[in-house]
Design brief:
Layout lengths: L4 E5 L4 H12 L5 E4 L9 H12 L3 E4 L12 H16 L5 E4 L2 E2 L9 E2 L5 H18 L3 E4 L7 H15 L5 E5 H11 L3 H5 L7 E6 L3 E4 L7 E4 L8 H13 L5 E4 L9 H21 L24 H16 L3 H9 L15 H15 L2
Parallel strand pairs: 1-2, 1-12, 2-3, 3-4, 4-7, 7-8, 8-9, 9-12
Antiparallel strand pairs: 5-6, 10-11
Helix pairs in contact: 1-9, 3-4, 4-5, 8-9, 10-12
C-alpha cells in the first residue's frame, strides 16, 4: 500500500538542523532526503539520524555533483559512483535521484547544472549514466525537472525527453514545483499548460521551495525568477502542490527544501517550520492509502564496460562553460557565443532567450565562486 510522506531535505547544516529539530521532536518529519555527495565525512550523531530513517525505509538520497550529461567520462564521476555504491551498503535508500544537466566548469565540484541539447547523443549518454547510477545503488533512480531553460522550445521538450531518458531503468521524476513556477513566470506559461508537458504518472517525488527575483539588464523591465532556495515558499507553489498531488498517482514523497544560509535567524527558521506544516496539512488532506501504480523497481541492467562519450559535445560544454563564467558584459557574452562552435549547431543558441542567457552567466559565475 502506498502513502505520501512529508519529507525534509536535511543535510549537515546547523541552521537547517535547528529549523528541523522541533518538527522532528514532534514526529512530523516522516522521511528525510539527504544529499549524500555534499559532505565527505559526517559526525556520528548525524550518522545515527540517517540510520534511524534508513531502518524505517524513509531515507532517500539526492545527488548534486554527478554531471549526468558530461560528454566525457570523468574520473570524478567514477569516484562519485564508487562513493554511492559504498554509502548504499551502509544505509538503505528507498530511492536515489540526481539533477538534470551538466556541470559547468573544469572543477567538477564548482560548476552550475545547466541544460543540454535534446539529441540522440545526449539521450544515449544520459541513459548510460542512469544505468551506472542504478548499478551502484541497486534501487529506484530518478531525475529532477529543470528550473532553467534557454528557450520556450526547450521547456516544451523537457518532459518528453525525461520520459525517454528514464525508460530503460524504469526511472521516475522529481517534480520540483518551484522549478515549474520559475518556468511559468520566465516563459509566460500557466500551471495547466506546464502539467500537460510532463509524464505525471512517473512522478514519485515532489519538491517545494522558495527562490528569488532578478532584474534583467539585457531586457529592461524583465524580471527573472531564480531557483535559489533562499526564501519562503511562494503562495503559488502551495497552490501548485494542491493540484499536483491529485495528478501524480505514484507520488510517495513531498520534500521541503531550503538552504541553511537562508535560515540564520529565529524568524526565518519559524517561517520554514510554518511552511513545512502547511505542506504537511495539504498532504494529510489529500493522503491516500492505495496500491501504487509503479514502484519503479530496477530492471535487469545491461551496462557497457566502457562509458559512452562524445568528445565534440564535451568540447562544446567546456567552451560554453568558459564563456558563461568569464563574460564581463552581456554584449561580450553574445559576441563570444556567436563566434563559438555552438553557433548553428544542435544547441540552437540562435533561439535562446536573451534574459535566459544572462541568467545562465549569472548562475555559472555564482557557482564558480563557491
Amino acid at each position: 500500500m502506498s502513502q505520501i510522506f512529508s519529507t525534509i531535505a536535511c543535510n549537515l547544516d546547523n541552521n537547517i538542523l535547528a529549523a528541523c529539530l522541533p518538527l522532528m521532536e514532534a514526529a512530523r518529519v516522516e522521511a528525510i532526503e539527504w544529499s549524500f555527495d555534499a559532505v565527505e565525512q559526517a559526525p556520528s550523531w548525524f550518522e545515527e539520524l540517517l540510520t534511524v530513517y534508513s531502518q524505517e525505509n524513509r531515507l532517500i538520497g539526492h545527488g548534486i555533483f554527478f554531471s549526468l550529461f558530461s560528454g566525457k567520462w570523468l574520473p570524478e564521476q567514477q569516484q562519485w559512483l564508487s562513493h554511492l555504491h559504498k554509502i548504499s551498503r551502509r544505509y538503505h535508500f528507498d530511492h536515489v535521484t540526481e539533477h538534470f544537466g551538466f556541470m559547468t566548469g573544469k572543477d567538477f565540484h564548482h560548476g552550475a547544472p545547466l541544460n543540454i541539447p535534446y539529441t540522440p547523443v545526449t539521450l544515449n549518454i544520459g541513459r548510460d549514466r542512469l544505468k551506472r547510477i542504478q548499478g551502484a545503488c541497486e534501487c529506484p533512480v530518478g531525475l529532477e525537472n529543470l528550473a532553467f531553460s534557454y528557450s520556450l522550445e526547450e521547456v516544451k521538450k523537457h518532459g518528453d525527453f525525461l520520459e525517454r531518458l528514464l525508460e530503460p531503468v524504469n526511472g521516475f521524476i522529481i517534480l520540483d514545483l518551484h522549478n515549474l513556477y520559475c518556468q511559468a513566470h520566465n516563459f509566460g506559461l500557466s500551471f495547466e499548460a506546464l502539467k500537460e508537458l510532463y509524464p505525471l504518472h512517473l512522478v514519485r517525488e515532489i519538491h517545494i521551495s522558495g527562490g528569488s527575483w532578478e532584474d534583467s539588464d539585457a531586457m529592461q523591465g524583465r524580471i527573472v525568477r531564480r531557483d535559489t532556495h533562499d526564501n519562503a515558499v511562494p503562495e503559488a507553489v502551495f497552490i501548485y502542490l494542491e493540484k499536483a498531488i491529485d495528478l501524480c498517482p505514484s507520488l510517495k514523497y513531498v520534500v521541503m527544501e531550503q538552504l541553511g544560509t537562508a535560515l540564520t535567524t529565529t524568524d526565518s527558521q519559524a517561517t520554514f517550520r510554518s511552511d513545512f506544516l502547511r505542506m504537511d496539512q495539504i498532504i494529510r488532506n489529500k493522503n491516500r492509502m492505495t496500491a501504487s501504480l509503479n514502484t519503479f523497481m530496477p530492471l535487469p541492467l545491461s551496462i557497457q564496460p566502457r562509458p559512452l562519450e562524445d568528445i565534440p559535445l564535451y568540447q562544446q560544454q567546456l567552451e560554453l562553460s568558459d564563456i558563461l563564467e568569464t563574460a564581463g558584459s552581456f554584449d561580450t557574452l553574445m559576441e563570444a557565443l556567436q563566434a563559438s562552435s555552438l553557433a548553428h549547431s544542435d544547441w540552437r543558441i540562435e533561439r535562446w532567450d536573451a534574459a535566459m542567457i544572462e541568467t545562465a552567466a549569472s548562475i555559472a559565475q555564482k557557482w564558480k565562486k563557491k
